[in-house]
Write a structure and sequence with these properties.
The chain is of the alpha/beta class. The protein has 16 helices and 14 strands.
Length: 387
């Protein structure tokens, strides 16, 4: 087959995050290897001006119309979807199938089964809606604490489950790891439709240099375990840099030894990863596959993480990092103290982490996995195929 042409669809978030970065990195990965790539994009900042988010979330005629027009003009082999909520909607699946184009959907979170998208309620894991229509999400106001917005989201899920949009219109789903694949199967997606492909990063080898202190990189929000991190750093001075912003930023201010660096560019983040002794990932939700983990491994930085969800599978204790019970500030503090007391062991873990990156998370390996998924999807019939 000639070079695969890809139409990437994504509804960007108000605050740029890892998912938005994945979309841009994926486009560059494909273009750098000779593939034609076009975008179908919407942005949540449009909601304030258009005010049509509720209707669009159910069925966006505009997005379906734009999808058909782009397919007719660009002639893609694949519509690769990342996020449809709320302004694109699953109507784009139907538009693609109507033009005979295979649909691949990357599942970055658990939105198809959970109104809150993270299986998290009140700071605790909640899987009450797995395998069912998440109607509890309305009663509990799981989406942004809003009854109305939760109803729109759950209504969209219910509508498209009934129409068969998720089961019949998506050719292949991409899960970022085996843990998430099992959750998606439990939620009702046929196992035969799900392929596993992790995120990737393009980072060169780290030259040897002195390392010192701890590092956190991410949104400063409850689900990221900021409360656990704060409690673990209270006891005495631990040299620790925090990169990121968010609603819990203030809780880390004035902690001895902690420097709040705010939002930094990718190059500066990686430079600090090369100088730190360990990265802390204290999340209390089922992280699908945080890019910061891959970036840390690529920079030879071992990771201290919560023993939860995919993190418990992605980090090998004693080899690429350390694990602690989610939400346990005491265990996190013990892990930090151990890391500070065993610099040689942590250095070896960093070397192991880089080896893991080179074996599994480089652009070259990721590209081969992606193309294999595309080829598999294209081989299946999709209605009227574009010329």
């Amino acid at each position: 087959m000639k070079e695969i042409r890809v139409l990437l669809a994504h509804n960007r978030y108000r605050e740029r995050g890892g998912e938005d970065e994945v979309v841009d990195s994926e486009a560059e990965l494909l273009r750098s290897r000779g593939h034609a790539v076009e975008f179908l994009l919407r942005d949540n900042r449009e909601i304030e001006s258009t005010g049509d988010a509720a209707v669009a979330a159910l069925w966006s005629r505009r997005a379906a119309r734009e999808t058909r027009a782009l397919i007719d003009k660009f002639r893609p082999h694949i519509l690769h979807v990342h996020n449809t909520f709320p302004l694109l909607s699953p109507s784009i699946y139907w538009a693609a199938q109507g033009r005979g184009v295979a649909v691949v959907q990357t599942l970055h979170n658990f939105r198809l089964f959970c109104a809150q998208a993270m299986f998290l309620r009140g700071g605790q894991i909640c899987e009450d809606c797995v395998g069912h229509l998440p109607w509890r999400g309305i009663v509990r106001r799981c989406y942004r604490g809003s009854l109305a917005q939760s109803a729109v989201l759950v209504g969209s899920l219910g509508l498209h489950r009934t129409l068969g949009s998720y089961r019949a219109k998506v050719t292949r789903y991409i899960a970022l790891n085996e843990f998430c694949r099992r959750k998606f199967i439990a939620g009702g997606i046929p196992a035969s439709k799900i392929a596993v492909r992790p995120n990737f990063a393009d980072i060169g080898a780290t030259p040897p240099q002195a390392r010192f202190g701890g590092l956190f990189v991410g949104r400063l929000a409850p689900e990221k375990g900021v409360g656990t991190l704060r409690a673990a750093l209270l006891e005495d001075v631990v040299p620790f840099d925090v990169i990121g912003t968010g609603p819990q930023e203030g809780t880390l201010r004035a902690l001895p030894g902690v420097r709040l660096l705010g939002r930094l560019g990718q190059q500066e983040v990686q430079a600090r990863m090369r100088r730190a002794s360990f990265l802390v990932l204290p999340s209390v939700w089922y992280e699908n596959f945080p890019r910061v983990l891959i970036e840390a491994f690529a920079c030879g930085l071992p990771v201290i993480a919560s023993r939860i969800g995919a993190l418990a599978e992605l980090i090998e204790p004693g080899k690429t990092g350390l694990l602690f019970s989610p939400g346990s500030a005491r265990e996190l503090r013990q892990a930090i103290d151990w890391a500070r007391s065993h610099p040689n062991r942590m250095e070896q873990m960093g070397l192991n982490a880089r080896e893991r990156y080179e074996a599994e998370y480089t652009p070259q390996i990721n590209y081969r996995r992606l193309i294999a998924i595309y080829q598999d999807a294209i081989r299946e019939p999709h209605g009227r195929r574009a010329a």
